[in-house]
Each structure stands twice: as structure tokens, then as C-alpha cells.
Amino acid sequence: MPHRQLAQVGVTMGILASLLGLFGCDQQKVDQAVGRVGDAAKRVWQSAKPDNLLFKDIVAGQSTEADVKATAGQPEMIWENEGGTRQLEYPRGPEGTSTWMVTIGPDGHVQKIEQVLTAENFGRVRVGQSKDDIRRMLGKPGKVEAFRLKQEEVWGYRWMEHPTERAYFNVHFGPEGRVTTTSRSDDRLNGA
Prior knowledge:
- The chain is α+β, with helices and mostly antiparallel strands.
- It folds into 3 domains: about 1-50, no CATH class; about 55-115, Beta-lactamase Inhibitory Protein, Chain:B, domain 1; about 120-185, Beta-lactamase Inhibitory Protein, Chain:B, domain 1, CATH 3.30.1450.10.
- The chain is about 35% helix and about 30% strand.
- It contains 7 helices and 8 strands; from the N terminus they run αααααββββααββββ.
- It has helices at about 5-25, 25-35, 40-50, 50-55, 65-70, 120, 130-140; strands spanning about 75-80, 85-90, 100-105, 110-115, 145, 150-160, 165-175, 180-185.
- Helix 1 (about 5-25) packs across helix 3 (about 40-50) and helix 2 (about 25-35) runs antiparallel to helix 3 (about 40-50).
- The longest helix has 21 residues, at about 5-25.
- It is globular and about 50 Å long.
- It starts with a helix and ends in a 6-residue tail after the last strand.
């Protein structure tokens, strides 16, 4: 990232820290102040917004895709599904431990919101699945590592393995871009 962009990000983060200090968790006041700062600050705030505020006031069956985007910002990816549904992907990484998928029905209303980095979803990963299959299921990985000698790419998903302990769930892809195995690794930031 060029020096000028880093400086802008630093200034924006300073403004956001000041806003949080002034208003705490009063979402309405924070939103009003962020609106005055501009779109760049709003995008940064939405990416750093705590999970419990990310979809505040979004109601399944009532809220629309536009409501979700106004509250949570632009998704990382939008998946078009069979049957006319759309899936909006909101990863909270690379340091976050959650990825949210919002399903929008054919009528444009929210059908469901779910955090997908769970043991249950990890158990759905199967040998032979493609990178697209995994991305649709788990979202954007927090880290991607290439091991040239093994001809392997590993996607790591940071998650809360236990209420107080983070770990990585890793998906290993062979040279054809298909899952060969999965593994678990420690999060070096535990206890930090």
C-alpha cells in the first residue's frame, strides 16, 4: 500500500478511535458522526464494526438487501444461487474469527444471517471439493499459503475453537485446486 494511502488509513482510524471514545457504543451518534466524516471513514467503520453491531436492526423476512448494505457495507463477495437467492459474504478477517453469510431471497428480503466458521460447517468439507465450493461455504480465508514442494495451497480460517481459544481450520488443495485434506493449527496470537 502506498505511503499516502497508509497515511489516509491512519487518519481515518484515528478519527474512528476518537468517535468511539466520544460516543462509546451509542450507535446512532457514531453513525451520525461517521456520516459527516465521509464515505472512506464509513467503509473503515463498517469493516471494523463489532459483530454484535454488524447487522443491528436487520430482521429476516422484513429487511432488504439494501438495508443490509447500508448497515454492514458492501460485501466481499455476492454469490448468485439456484432458485434466485443471493448470498452476501462478510468475512471479519484476517484477524477476525467470524464470517457472516446473508441469504437474500428472490423477493429481495433477508432470509437468514449465519456465522459460517463453525465446527459443523468445517465438518461439511469433503475431499474433491473445489475452491469455489469452499469459498461459498466458508467465505474468504484469513490466510493463504503456498507450499511449492508439496504442490499444495492451504487456506486458513481463524475461528473460536473454544470460548477463549482461537485456532485455524485449514483446507489443503492439490495442484488441480481440489480439497485433498483438512487440518488444524494453533493460533500464535492465543495468550497474546
